[in-house]
Write a structure and sequence with these properties.
This protein is mainly α and about 300 residues long. The protein has two domains: about 1-45; about 65-295, MetI-like (MetI-like fold). The protein has 13 helices and two strands. It has helices at about 1-45, 65-70, 70-105, 110-120, 125-135, 140-150, 165-190, 195-205, 210-220, 220-235, 240-245, 255-265, 270-295, and strands at about 50, 60. It has a two-stranded antiparallel ribbon. A hairpin with a 7-residue loop joins strand 1 and strand 2 (about 60). It is globular and about 75 Å long. The termini are far apart. It holds the Pfam family BPD_transp_1. This is Sugar ABC transporter permease. Belongs to the binding-protein-dependent transport system permease family. Keywords: Cell membrane, Membrane, Transmembrane, Transmembrane helix, Transport. It is a multi-pass membrane protein.
Amino acid sequence: MKSRVAGTKRVFIGTKLQWISIVFVLPALLLNLIFYIYPLVQSLILSFYDVPMLGDKMFTGLENYRQLFQDAAFWKALRFTFLYILIVTPPLFLLGLALALLVNARLPLITFFRSVYFLPVIISMVSCSLVWLWAYNDVYGLVNYYLMELHLIDKPVVWMAEAGTSLPAITFMVTWKVAGFTMIILLSALQSIPSDIYEASKIDGANRWKTILYITLPILKPAIVLALVVSVIGSALAFEQFVIMTQGGPSNSTTTIVNLIYDTSFKYYKFGYGSAMTIVLLLILLLLSAIQVKVLSRN
């Protein structure tokens, strides 16, 4: 009898804990449903329609997708977005990894330095873009001033005049701003590594570089996969920095795919066509993420 009562109590407590867990998760779930799932479903539905600014929408089937794959502007924006991903991801990851290894040491004021390196992450991309646009100014910008003082250039560089100079400049700014986020992801994984492993490697005669190469990096693989996937997705969704710093120019040479989706939907009011671009971009990101996870998760 007592065992039956105890079993009933355990079931009751377990059910109560499940309901409490659901109550805590419910606000986040509702926010995701309202701001992510519902807009995604609506975008998928609108992608099959011609949605004029005035009047009723008209079902067009796959016409938006057929037109999309024949759109030169779409392919140009997509190529530039992939170029930006390839250029910005390596320095972003390597700097984040270097900072994580640096601030993982137990040194005086290390908490202060962690905060300093992470500080740019909490600044909005709009604010960073405006500040760095001023720094890159060809007349009174600090970048040209110091480069000329160091005799690295003979005359001021108009950084935002063309893609050949604007893309490296924006890459430098984004790396400075976002590397702290990669640092936090990798640092949390570093601090979860047991110290016994490092002590055993020292006994076996492994130096610092061999320890990083053969112990730290293999153990960090899940965190590295996460950091790279987040970096690639964030780079593919780049928008504010190019709108503010280059306005997509010159001649749309720095127009990202998200910038094109925004212009198509909210400047030219082609909501159905913009929704089709959004769905294609989502599928591309899912494919890229799956490839990254598959390749980087191999033993």
